[in-house]
Predict the structure of Amidohydrolase family protein.
Amino acid sequence: MTQAKAATPCDTIITAGWVITVDARRRIFRDGAVAITGSTITAVGKAADIDARFTAGSRIDRPGAVVMPGMVNGHRHLLCCAKGAMPEGGGTLEALRRFIYPSFSSLEPEDMAVYARHATAEMIRNGTTLFEEPGCDHIDAVLPAIAESGMRARIGLWTWDQAGSGGTAGLPAWLKLDTGAAIRRLEEGIEIVRKFGHERIRPAVTIEGVTTCSDELTVAAAKLAEESETLAVQHKSTSQREVELELKLFGERPVRHCATIGALNPYTLLNHVTSLDGEDVAAIADTGATVSQNPSTALKLAKGTTAFGKWPELIAAGVPMGLGTDAENCSNHQDICRAMQLAALLPRDARQDPNAVSAETAVELGTLGGARALRFDDVTGSLEEGKEADVVVFDTDDYDWRPLHNPIANLAYGVTGHSVDTVLIGGRIVLSGKKSTVFDEEQLRADVERTDRKILAKIGIDPLPAWPVL
């Protein structure tokens, strides 16, 4: 008589009504399960099969839940400015020079620590487990906060030489460097992150872009990222005004100009790119560069994403692309679920084509696509054996999930991050019952409110409503 094989021990088993893997076959398991040992996924499959193969030290059994990979925020500033305080009526370049840059330049190390802790807590609350910070100051205060949160991150030092196509008018003296010093600062950023030595935090080469950086600095950043196998991050082709400035100065559009000077390669991440033409799309695809699409920012700052965006073309060209939410006053939220909805729906209306971007593609952009864009897909972005156990459990007992026939449709068209119940990063529970297991959230809110008011006083802005306050 054949003896039954003993079950293999593991640390945790998660069971759910639906398990969305985003693996190579894009399998979805009905009544599925994920087995975790240490920080790693041991197996994914039908719950009955997983239970037969493994015995767990702890279990998360949620028969009505939807489980998916941790989401990825491809563009999330920790250099912050007070949410809801930005004066109305400015486009991208006006908002940057009138409010955002002055806010950034007013921050002290203790302010950055507060903002980093609050931002990571908010992202986790909405199901994000990996993010890209496109350049911060006071990084020594930021890195411990990220490590404490448990999140994965790409991060570098904010760098510019203020020698780009937009000129210096309206730019603060803050961190003003000549090109050589700016390049050295980029190198220093890589060294600082690597010396910090945290397995979940990887360095980036972060320049501001968006008309503030010289060609020499832009090329040096791309080369440094390639040599160091990191990621060169910049804001690029963020509005028609930026396109017009660079056409006038260089005779080329911003993305095409980057290609001409040799500043695009597989280690380049372009943020925004809301104003493209067919040659721009080809330049990005041909060089292997990646993209973070930030749709709510594009809408709030009137970037023209529906008029000039090429999102279906970028997807068709196979460009690795994720989604981002930018800073507080650009999206006013950090919810990748909401970004997925806009990524699915805006191109359909712009092209009057209901097939422009599918629901499945939108969900992929928020998970594996973002991990690929940030060069983190070796460890995260999908639920697969051998990858890190970055897992999100959605509570489906709410109107945005019910009735539940196709969870991909629910995710792409109606769900928000507020229905995220549990989050694991590397097998560690960092959110349970919609509450942080890491931070005192009430204290975080008090800290960020106090910090906001201090910074607003420094830059002379009192963000009252336009309507009379009695």
Summary: The first strand starts at residue 8 and ends at 20. The chain has 17 helices and 17 strands. Residues 294 and 325 are 6 Å apart (CA to CA).
